[in-house]
Amino acid sequence: MEEELKKIIIDKFGSVRQFASKIDIPYTTVDTILKRGIDNSNVTNVIKMCKGLKISVDKLIDEHKIIQISFDNGELINIDNDIIKIAVYGTIKAGIPIESQPDIIDYVEIPKKWTVGGKKFYGLKISGDSMFPKYNENDIVIFEQNDDTNLYNGKDVAVMINGTESTFKKILVNDNGIILQPYNTAYDIMMFSKEQVEQLPIKVIGIAIEKRTRL
To answer: What is the pTM (predicted TM-score) of this model?
Structure first.
């Protein structure tokens, strides 16, 4: 298993040394883990390695195996079947492409067929209650990366505002501009003119396609 892990590191980062530098662990430590196995290694370092590779910690530590995996745009793909794992973020940071977002908190599975045609997806853990009762805090919502106005009008979307703030709201587009509408009536509706949409700017970064509630 350690040999497979080393192969993945080299394929993705070029060398074990470059990978060690990227995750801020001494090269000798990573090299030792790869030689003697994760069972005899410091758990904190193993977790750092998993995060650096975007591999599920549970899969690597609990199951102690990696089965024919490869990387595609930051997604971990199990090519043994028709399921892929996508990253779940706690927040979406402005100015950073989805694939490079640093705040990965989990991974969830989606059907591989969803990605036909080059479609890309990510998950976002809901924080707050502005979209209650349709969405609850800690729900995981799966988003398709899409900024097509014809597709997202009237849908629940992830939006970046002014390059500094990300939010999750229902969006309505009309001749005057856009409306970002929460489902919880305790929160105010946000309205933006066409000029504001362009100048701020306001950009849709994903259309909600599925909600997953954990008990």
So the answer is: 0.62
